Q: What sequence folds into this?
């Protein structure tokens, strides 16, 4: 999660504790920060929007200007155009699709507005000033290692490994699956079956119900997203199956509580923290005010920041619980 | 014209007397044929898993939620309307019933709450359409966006878990009777009730009249507006029941529940032979239509097809299924 | 010129035509006679390329003729006026008249030319006042009928088929229609004319072909010389005696309905128990408006009293609860559930009577429908058939049957015999009279003056929305009434 | 019938000649009133930004893609059908036109490819509906899933960028003439052409007949099947044009383009006064309906409302907009 000191500057992002260690939190020139993200129809994205807004509120020198979140590319382009017209001082953009919004991000940069690219990356480096995001590939790797190692230790050969993806057309889904596959390969394992859900409880439930029918014996399951994981767990409980263990993704508070209780098949989850939105707002402020990150030697904010994906298990869940987002 | 000729045309059978004869049966034959075909594919491709009880039960459990909604939708469409707000109303009802404030009162009140919220939202639809004179497409579209918005506000966009003390609700999905989860029985009950109301009561008969020719129905002394309003309330009630089922299944209430259910339900109704112009259709047809969709998805997942191929195949299967029950151009509408 | 031989057409369960022959000469007006459901419309739909015959041959001007589509038939020179109005409500009069053969250049319709053509055809039909640019949906049924005729005339047809064109027309219009038919036949165009009004056939027809139960019983009878009795007995297989039932001997009872200044000043009258009150007038004189206003189906000025107490006609359902029933004018648009069975159509107006706590007693329903189907001779006599497979006249009988169920106190009948054949008509009259004898009040609208005079006890004469005369039917004769309704209203 | 009586019924008015009179005008007045109201809200809440040229241009650019689709949809719905596959066809056309194989041939061929793919898919819809006798809802639903599946396969679910050498295509969106991007002109052109075809050609006028009374149209000698087929091909062509616009705007082809466009387009058409039963409607109405939706979105963007409130507000606005053009019960359909 992003409050690791290495990743962002100097304050734990989600909690509104503005404990300034350097001078960066001192009020500076007033800046207007525009913000655009996909529609908050999903716990993780909702947490993104909320974190961004909460962080912006901590700073009296930020005027926060969010625009209508939408899942329609065309509308998001318009939304960003309107922010450019409004001549904001910095833009924080979580595009529906980096490639498709690349052009309008370029236009913003050309108009002299620094773009902080959040999570889904623009292909063109000229399109943004700084990128901050999670490591989707790394998330798959983390899940793959957890599952691979555990099965190896158990001495299972030819394990049945089931993967429940998120929305299949998103590049992030493809990255996660790739990482998962690559990590498993190092143990000589491969994915037996994978199906995509829509990041919602209900679709997770539906897909899991059928997958459980398709495979009478499962050894391990990775579910990309803890939001849809609630539905997946309900389906597993309904079926009464417990011969396998499951790893989640994203790190919602709910998943962490399940892990802590230890009463279900969910043993671990790999993080992809929405705290990155808080960091992005802070970065946007620093960039707009021409400041650097006081913990680093560099005089300017770095060009790209990748959050690490961590594995949460019963052993360390205590530590992460306060950072989990309520999905 | 001689009497033997007439006998030929006179239908016999289950649906014979409803006025939806011959044709109706032939239609259902087509659907049944499509189902049998799909089942055969299942048996061939996954002989080990497809025909197991647990798989069949799981198909029915999957169909239950949307199945209940489909029953209400069948009424609305036969009555000449359409309801785009079903998924959103279900979401709203599930969220309302799972707020902490509601959950305090226990599972019974939660169920009651879901049913009331569903019926209430349906009633608003009905009022807008019959007394506000909005076209159903627009009124229920407005309800769709507004209900989802309200559900998001109420839940603060979070997934609301059914609390531990209310697990009685969840037991609808986990408790089995004769090996079949209770929610499947609820589904069956709703279908049976829907069939009875549509085919054996004045309410059902009026629904056909109101949808088939509203002006004629009005001049025959039917209170078309009130009836229309009741149809949407009925659909809302079905959404409320569906909300209970989805809460039981997923152990949650969420503003994301039921996304795009409206399309699935409408498609099931229409594949089942109900015309979008109203005045015709059967509950059995709609349920068969829905089972076709559910079976397709089940088969794909059992066989581990990827989504893109699934989509292509789904398109083709829909076309083939409907060609099996080809309909002539005169009856063409939407 | 046209020769149809051995035509057979089967619908599922019904042999509508069974080896029918028809011979039409150039320049003649050939009439088709037959009871409701005899197969007249089916026969001419075969000519028009709507249906394909199962057997039989057609030759036209010596050549084999097998129309495969309406387009084909139109190109071959057959134009048709269909029994059911088939116009497109959303298009203008001119667009409807020229639909399918619009004047166009490079796909662009030439609207000026189209309007000119339409104006010309309408003028020829004696209706220059129908504007080519008016939207057809806004016209009255009678004006729509004129547009239908104009459409048939707009084709350069060698044979024009008219399926009950006069059913929606009043007296003066029929005369106009006959003038056109004479013009056409004089130019060598053949006309096939279908009507249930024998006097029309006698006036316009050259020869008559009679159909009965899908078979030809007589071909090419001379129209003017064959006695009416003979025609009727050929059609029905029996003789129909005295057409109108005798009037009630006892005086009418208490007042059921009284209206004051309804729809307009001076429109005040009453209907009593056991009384049949007829409304005479031209099409568009405001009779339908009165019925609908009484029934609550249309907002109108004025006061309505039922059994002496003033009521506010709210919506039809409240009036139905008070014992009223309306058989509307346009059966397809206003009365029928086309997809439903005859039974469902008949019982629609009195569903609560067949139900307990909302639960339908379908056995009783079927029994009642069967009784009424027998009473009104609905054919085929199977009430479970979808009503859309019945012929026009039989559908009309089902519309009437709807209000013969249960206890009505006042029936409002708008053109109840439209499209009903002679034999069935006599039965309908008897049924209506019997209802009156049981104490029901009847308010009847008909464009056929003899019908109003023969059936009613009292007659109200309407002209341009005003009630101009009230009298006992016995005191009036046809000429007097015609004089009154037409006075000053004929287009100069 | 006497001449005075007929005169009473005869309407007069500006639009008297189009065959859509009185009513038509009143309807458009309602829509214009709603637009004016929304604009007033914009002026009051954001006096600084709302009425700027650049904001208006951006509203039109946003409306352009779906606007082109709406034109095709208007034809289909007036013709008595419905097309659920528009968004998916647009996605497929955009993907097909941006494959590397196609991009080799330069922007002109890419445009041609998009138009052909769109028209071809529309033609398949048309064939299934008019000759295969599938109900339009089902046929185009099948096309929706199949086209999206195919688009996903073709693109391997990746977003395909327009290559640098084909930037001529992207210039449709970036090049301005009189300060207005070219794609807005294309939008305007399509609307104008659509209007001309619908109102001034035999094809357009027959569309009303085919939708309003297919039986009457057939009896009048119109080839109803061929006409129906052409309507869907036309809608497909519009999707192809929309694909070009979306490629220009986003510089990409993607299987996710146009998600749920079908609902937006249908809603715009219906709010514009076209009946889902066919036979009535205007292009102008549909475009006004679409602009209302776009304006709502724009206002929300400018005012930065949160999503849930937006949704609730959107629902209410739709209801109010339509109440402004209340329609009577007789015309009630879907
Ligand atoms: N589409 C159809 N399907 C089934 N039966 C039909 C169909 N059309 C007509 N019939 C039947 O064919 C027979 C002849 O009907 P037709 O309409 O030709 O009668 P008609 O002589 O025109 O009667 P009317 O005087 O009442 O108009 C009737 O028994 C009718 O029920
Ligand atoms: N839907 C309508 N819209 C406008 N005017 C109408 C409408 N219906 C009827 N009218 C007008 O109202 C007047 C009375 O018509 P009405 O139908 O009551 O006459 P009618 O004597 O019953 O004639 P008909 O025999 O055609 O029914 C006529 O001038 C007619 O043009
Ligand atoms: Mg007939
Ligand atoms: Mg009348």
A:
């Amino acid at each position: 999660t992003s409050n690791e000191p290495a990743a962002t500057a100097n304050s734990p992002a989600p909690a509104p504790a503005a404990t300034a260690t350097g001078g960066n939190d001192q009020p500076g020139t007033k800046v207007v920060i525009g913000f655009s993200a996909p529609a908050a129809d999903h716990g993780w994205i909702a947490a993104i929007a909320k974190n961004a807004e909460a962080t912006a509120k901590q700073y009296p020198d930020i005027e926060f200007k969010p625009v209508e979140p939408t899942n329609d590319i065309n509308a998001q382009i318009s939304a960003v155009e309107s922010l450019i017209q409004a001549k904001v001082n910095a833009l924080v953009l979580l595009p529906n699709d980096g490639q498709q919004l690349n052009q309008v991000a370029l236009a913003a940069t050309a108009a002299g507005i620094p773009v902080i690219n959040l999570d889904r990356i623009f292909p063109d480096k000229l399109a943004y000033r700084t990128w901050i995001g999670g490591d989707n590939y790394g998330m798959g790797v983390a899940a793959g290692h957890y599952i691979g190692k555990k099965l190896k230790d158990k001495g299972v050969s030819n394990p049945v490994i089931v993967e429940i993806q998120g929305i299949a057309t998103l590049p992030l889904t493809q990255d996660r699956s790739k990482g998962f596959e690559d990590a498993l390969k190092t143990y000589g394992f491969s994915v037996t079956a994978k199906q995509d859900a829509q990041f919602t409880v209900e679709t997770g439930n539906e897909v899991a119900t059928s997958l459980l029918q398709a495979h009478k014996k499962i050894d391990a399951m990775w579910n990309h997203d803890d939001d849809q994981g609630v539905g997946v767990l309900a389906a597993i409980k309904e079926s009464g199956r417990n011969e396998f263990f499951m790893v989640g993704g994203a790190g919602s508070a709910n998943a962490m509580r399940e892990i802590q209780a230890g009463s279900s098949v969910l043993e671990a989850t790999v993080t992809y923290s929405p705290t990155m939105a808080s960091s992005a707002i802070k970065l946007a402020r620093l960039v707009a005010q021409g400041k650097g990150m006081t913990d680093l030697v560099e005089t300017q904010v770095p060009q790209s920041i990748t959050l690490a994906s961590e594995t949460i298990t019963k052993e360390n869940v205590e530590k992460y619980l306060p950072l989990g987002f309520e999905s | 014209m001689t009497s033997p000729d007439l006998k030929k045309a006179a239908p016999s059978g289950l649906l014979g007397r409803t006025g939806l004869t011959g044709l109706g049966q032939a239609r259902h034959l087509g659907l049944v044929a499509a189902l049998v075909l799909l089942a055969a594919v299942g048996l061939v491709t996954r002989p080990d898993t497809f025909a197991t009880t647990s798989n069949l039960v799981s198909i029915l459990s999957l169909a239950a939620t949307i199945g209940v909604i489909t029953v209400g939708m069948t009424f609305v469409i036969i009555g000449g309307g359409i309801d785009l707000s079903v998924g959103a109303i279900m979401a709203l009802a599930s969220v309302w019933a799972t707020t902490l404030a509601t959950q305090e009162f226990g599972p019974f009140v939660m169920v009651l709450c879901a049913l009331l919220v569903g019926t209430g939202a349906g009633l608003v639809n009905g009022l807008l359409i019959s007394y506000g004179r909005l076209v159903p497409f627009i009124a229920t579209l407005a309800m769709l966006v507004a209900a989802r918005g309200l559900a998001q506000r109420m839940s603060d966009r979070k997934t609301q878990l059914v609390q531990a003390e209310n697990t009685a609700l969840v037991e609808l999905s986990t408790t089995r009777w004769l090996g079949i989860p209770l929610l499947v029985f609820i589904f069956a009950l709703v279908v049976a009730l829907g069939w009875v109301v549509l085919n054996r009561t004045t309410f059902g008969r009026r629904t056909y009249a109101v949808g088939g020719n509203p002006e004629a129905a009005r001049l025959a002394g039917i209170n078309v507006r009130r009836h229309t309003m009741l149809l949407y309330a009925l659909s809302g009630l079905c959404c409320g029941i569906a909300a209970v089922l989805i809460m039981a299944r997923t152990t949650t209430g969420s503003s994301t529940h039921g996304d795009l259910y409206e399309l699935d339900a409408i498609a099931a109704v229409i594949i089942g032979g109900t015309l979008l112009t109203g005045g015709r259709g059967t509950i059995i047809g709609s349920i068969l239509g829905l089972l076709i969709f559910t079976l397709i998805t089940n088969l794909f997942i059992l066989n581990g097809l990827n989504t893109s191929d699934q989509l292509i195949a789904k398109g083709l299967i829909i076309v083939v299924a409907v060609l099996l029950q080809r309909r002539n151009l005169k009856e063409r509408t939407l | 010129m046209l020769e149809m031989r051995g035509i057979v057409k089967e619908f599922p369960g019904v042999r509508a035509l069974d080896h029918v022959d028809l011979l039409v000469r150039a320049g003649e007006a050939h009439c088709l006679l037959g009871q409701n459901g005899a197969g007249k419309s089916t026969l001419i739909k075969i000519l028009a390329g709507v249906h394909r015959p199962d057997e039989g041959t057609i030759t036209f001007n010596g050549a084999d003729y097998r129309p495969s589509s309406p387009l084909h038939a139109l190109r071959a020179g057959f134009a048709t006026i269909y029994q059911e109005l088939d116009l497109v409500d959303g298009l203008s009069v001119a667009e409807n008249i020229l639909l399918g053969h619009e004047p166009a250049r490079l796909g662009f319709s030439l609207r000026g030319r189209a309007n000119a053509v339409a104006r010309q055809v309408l003028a020829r039909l004696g209706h220059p006042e129908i504007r080519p640019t008016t939207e057809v949906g806004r016209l009255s049924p009678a004006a729509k009928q004129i547009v239908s005729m104009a459409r048939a005339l707009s084709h350069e047809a060698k044979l024009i088929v008219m399926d009950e064109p006069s059913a929606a027309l009043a007296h003066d219009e029929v005369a106009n229609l006959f003038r056109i038919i004479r013009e056409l036949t004089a130019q060598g165009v053949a006309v096939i004319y279908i009507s249930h009004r024998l006097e029309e056939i006698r006036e316009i027809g050259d020869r008559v072909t009679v159909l009965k139960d899908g078979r030809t019983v007589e071909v090419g009878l001379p129209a003017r010389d064959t006695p009416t009795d003979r025609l009727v007995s050929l059609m029905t297989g029996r003789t129909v005696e005295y057409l109108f039932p005798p009037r009630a001997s006892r005086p009418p009872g208490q007042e059921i309905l009284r209206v004051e200044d309804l729809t307009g000043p001076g429109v005040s009258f009453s209907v009593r128990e056991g009384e049949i009150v007829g409304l005479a007038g031209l099409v568009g004189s405001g009779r339908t408006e009165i019925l609908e206003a009484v029934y609550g189906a249309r907002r109108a000025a004025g006061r309505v009293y039922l059994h002496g107490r003033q009521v506010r006609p709210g919506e039809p359902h409240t009036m139905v609860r008070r014992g009223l029933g309306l058989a509307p004018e346009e059966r397809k648009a206003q009365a029928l559930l086309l997809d439903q069975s005859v039974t469902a159509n008949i019982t629609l107006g009195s569903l609560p009577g067949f139900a307990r706590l909302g639960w339908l007693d379908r056995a009783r329903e079927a029994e009642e429908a069967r009784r009424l189907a027998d009473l009104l001779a609905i054919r085929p006599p199977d009430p479970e058939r979808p009503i859309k497979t019945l012929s026009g006249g039989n559908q009309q009988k089902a519309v009437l049957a709807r209000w013969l169920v249960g206890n009505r106190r006042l029936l409002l009948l708008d053109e109840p015999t439209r499209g009903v054949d002679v034999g069935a008509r006599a039965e309908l009259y008897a049924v209506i009279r019997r209802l009156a004898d049981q104490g029901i009040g009847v308010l009847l609208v008909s464009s056929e003056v003899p019908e109003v005079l023969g059936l009613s006890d009292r007659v109200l004469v309407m002209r341009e929305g005003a009630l101009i005369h009230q009298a006992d039917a016995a005191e009036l004769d046809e000429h007097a009434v015609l004089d009154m309704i037409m006075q000053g209203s004929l287009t100069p």
